[in-house]
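Form 7-S
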Amino acid sequence: MKEEFDRTSPLGAVKYFRNCIFNGDLPGALGCFHPEATYIERDGQEIRGLENIEKALTAICLWKPKIEGVKHRITIVEDLALWIDNYTVKARTANGDPMEMEGTTACMLKRNAEGLWLWLVDNPFASNDLTL
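Output:
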């Protein structure tokens, strides 16, 4: 049975995105980003534009990691939302070894004309920014 996600709420949008990643659904994951989005890599590099973000998401979708939020906070101001959460990731490396990590993400989402929340800025390694 296919799970339904309510992307008209930031929480539903995050759950949908993480489900797409877990299932290796690159088009679905990319569809969670605003056309003017920026994705921030682990090293702080800002990747702009859907074509470039797709390249970054390709590797993540190949992993098919299970990403679970531990604690989150949402602040909504009109059509913008700030999403911050601590998360855990469980996956297998290319050679089959288990891999686990945890982190903090900080994202800005924007509600589009259809009422769906899309990533405007995605910084899944925000905790790195605070420890540099």
